[in-house]
């Protein structure tokens, strides 16, 4: 490994894992690079100047941070730039699809407030996006949700939109990933889901914002569940 880029290779690994875990985004897709290039950089290959500049532009962090500092999401938050990816998709010959926006906002708030706010609201009716965004997913299972609240900050903010893929079996969720959860009382939550040890009939709803407490509830209260597969910042809509 080139010791001059020791931090860089570690940072590429960390950022790749962070994007996959927190936003279900592949760094290769974001950059439009072959998987092999990312793997080589993460293994210690020295980056070329144009690669460093592209990473800086797309990730929104400085070249100095990429190369000579240990990256963490709290200390050096990413400011993702989807414009290049979008422009490549939009200007290519391809099919566009419409994703319906759920009639109510998904609550990233405390649970008492979320359960009070079940009145239908008026906002965007649908999104029109390139089909290539969704990697051959079943379009009938996709639905968009506008986020209300900041309990998932800093990874998701009030006014952002997430696109979820409906789970055929609501309890077959992937632990730790962000989900939209519709309860039988019509409450709609946006949280990370975890299973409760030694209690298969309960799940835990957790926030990214440490100011918000977790909630444990019975699986019998769950009506539907969507796993988040794409995230659109409010400034991109």
Account of the protein in words:
With 237 residues, this protein is an alpha+beta fold. The chain has two domains: 3-81, 434 Repressor (Amino-terminal Domain) (Orthogonal Bundle); 96-236, Ribbon (Umud Fragment, subunit A). The protein is built from seven helices and ten strands. The protein has helices spanning 6-23, 27-31, 35-42, 49-59, 63-68, 83-90, 111-116, and strands at residues 96-100, 106-107, 126-130, 142-148, 161-166, 178-183, 188-195, 202-206, 215-218, 222-232. The strands form two sheets. An eight-stranded mixed beta sheet has the order 2-4-5-10-6-7-8-9. A hairpin with a 4-residue loop joins β6 and β7. The termini are far apart. The relative contact order is 0.13.
Mean pLDDT: 81
CATH superfamily of the largest domain: Umud Fragment, subunit A
Count of alpha and pi helical runs:
7
Order of helices and strands: HHHHHHEEHEEEEEEEE
Name of the CATH class of the largest domain: Mainly Beta
Classify the secondary structure makeup into a structural class.
Answer: alpha+beta
Relative helix content: 25-40%
Taken from the alpha-carbon principal axes, the silhouette is: globular
Short descriptors:
434 Repressor (Amino-terminal Domain); eight-stranded mixed sheet; 26% helix; single chain; Umud Fragment, subunit A; two-stranded antiparallel sheet; 10 strands; alpha+beta
Topology diagram in text:
Layout: H1 6-23, H2 27-31, H3 35-42, H4 49-59, H5 63-68, H6 83-90, E1 96-100, E2 106-107, H7 111-116, E3 126-130, E4 142-148, E5 161-166, E6 178-183, E7 188-195, E8 202-206, E9 215-218, E10 222-232
């Amino acid at each position: 490994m080139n010791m001059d880029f020791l931090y860089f290779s570690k940072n590429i690994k960390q950022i790749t894992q962070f994007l996959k875990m927190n936003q279900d985004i592949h760094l290769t897709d974001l950059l439009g690079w072959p998987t092999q290039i990312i793997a080589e950089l993460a293994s210690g290959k020295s980056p070329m100047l144009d690669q460093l500049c592209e990473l800086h532009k797309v990730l929104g962090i400085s070249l100095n941070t990429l190369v000579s500092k240990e990256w963490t999401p709290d200390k050096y938050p990413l400011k993702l730039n989807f414009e290049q990816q979008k422009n490549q998709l939009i200007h290519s010959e391809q099919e566009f699809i419409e994703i319906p926006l759920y009639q109510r906002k998904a609550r990233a708030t405390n649970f008492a407030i979320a359960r009070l706010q079940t009145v239908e609201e008026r906002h965007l009716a649908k999104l029109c996006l390139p089909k290539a965004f969704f990697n051959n997913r079943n379009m009938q299972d996709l639905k968009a949700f506008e986020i209300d609240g900041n309990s998932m900050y800093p990874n998701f903010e009030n006014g952002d939109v997430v696109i979820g893929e409906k789970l055929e079996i609501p309890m077959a969720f992937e632990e730790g990933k962000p989900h939209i959860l519709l309860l039988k009382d019509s409450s709609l939550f946006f949280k990370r889901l975890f299973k409760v040890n030694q209690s298969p009939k309960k799940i835990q709803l957790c926030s990214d914002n440490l100011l918000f407490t977790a909630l444990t509830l019975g699986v019998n209260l769950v009506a539907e569940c969507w796993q988040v597969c794409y995230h659109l910042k409010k400034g991109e809509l």
